[in-house]
Amino acid sequence: MEYTSTRNKNIRVSAAQAIAQGISEDGGLFVPVSVPAVSMDEIIELSHADYITRAKKILSLYLTDFTDEELDYCVNGAYEKSKFSSPKIAPLVEVEPNTHVLELWRGPTCAFKDMALQILPYLLTVAASKTAGGKEIVILVATSGDTGKAALEGFKDVKNTKVLVFYPEDGVSPMQKLQMMTQEGENVGVCAIKGNFDDAQSGVKKIFTDPAVREKLAAHNMMFSSANSINWGRLVPQVVYYFSAYCDMINDGSIEPGKEINVVVPTGNFGNILAAYYAKKMGLPIRKLICASNANNVLTDFLTSGTYDRNRDFYMTASPSMDILISSNLERLLFDLTGFNDELVRGWMNALASDGKYTVTDDVFAKIKDLFVAGYCDDDATKATIKKVFESDKYLCDTHTAVAVNVYEAYKERTADETDTVIASTANPYKFSADVLEAVIGERSSGSEFSVVSELSVATNEPVPPQLANLSEKAVRFKGVCEKSQMIDEVYKMLGI
Length: 497
Ligand SMILES: *Cc1c(COP(=O)(O)O)cnc(C)c1O
Known about the structure:
By secondary structure, the chain is of the alpha/beta class. Helices cover 47% and strands 17% of the residues. The structure holds pyridoxal-5'-phosphate.
């Protein structure tokens, strides 16, 4: 399988090159030149297999330049059962008849980012051994919370890699901050910056693209790579769990093989829902892709009007991992729906950069309307949903998952569509304890983070994940805070060069 760029369709690279490089030099994202098909017979066969086997099958279709042994090494290392709190890795819970929650947060950091970031270090080191001549890989991350911790945990003590994370000093939740400050591992570095997430992200981008920095790293036999969802190596592992969910539904008798399902995804950067789109194209019977947003509803407007317009207020919500106005993976969908028209995509992305908006052609909009349903809800509705689901279904969900549940319920009421539905659940509720507790008991606790965790556990009787409960006892290793102009000095210091 070869890969091309969304901004230059003449480019051809291998999967290993696409993953090692992260982003195309023209600024485009790598996509496979064709989408491999999976038959219903193959899906039925996978339903008898475990998660590791399902993952190997799906990955092998896209990473054709990886050997069988290399793929085994990647999937066995990433989805080792001891690292996840469920032997199914991504278990499916039927909370109401026909409504299934896919728990993607059973990994080490309690957020769905683990599903991809546990395997990315393996994919990246194999890819680099094929293409980068043994250079040490330096992963540089700007995070608003979940990605940073999941990348640190995924890359910790992985040979031949270093991982450095910058986060906005006041822009992450207390739990997220503590998770990063106490990170273990010999090859990790964490630094807060005086600024917001955008400052952290532009600082990292500047470091990435500075030729002088790249030369200095090369002189020390190092190279940068990216762990955010523009990297194909982050996206392809996410296709797996949609197949896995369908297999589990066959196994538990929820559906007959071949029957269509709906998928609902709480969406930020459009990575998770794009993976579901690829699963559908590969042959997984998905009827509607339902895209759920919070008050930052730029995607709802786009998917229902055909105009993407980021010129609007930015809200800090109770579902912070979805507080985003530029969903970068949308570019991959547009490239696909235009039949690989790189000229059109370049035009839209240039318009987005200069005017903050663009409108797709009628033809593309018609396809979008056929594939997607979109909706959003605000924080009050999110909390009301947490309360309702907890009381009527005895299921405690986090704020991001609640947005998806709310949007799905509105869709069901509007359409009376009773199709079996999978709702992607993206975080453990204890990662956002204060808001979840407020939703459940009706008032905001004034306690510290860990007392809020205990209050929530008393109120709900839901187990606290040990990796969050234990944080209060861990030593703080990273207290550094730097000016945004000093980020490069921090990078050199952490790399020891
Ligand atoms: C990252 C994240 C999302 C958004 O996922 P995208 O792939 O960016 O759309 C949703 N929920 C949680 C908890 C996340 O960490």
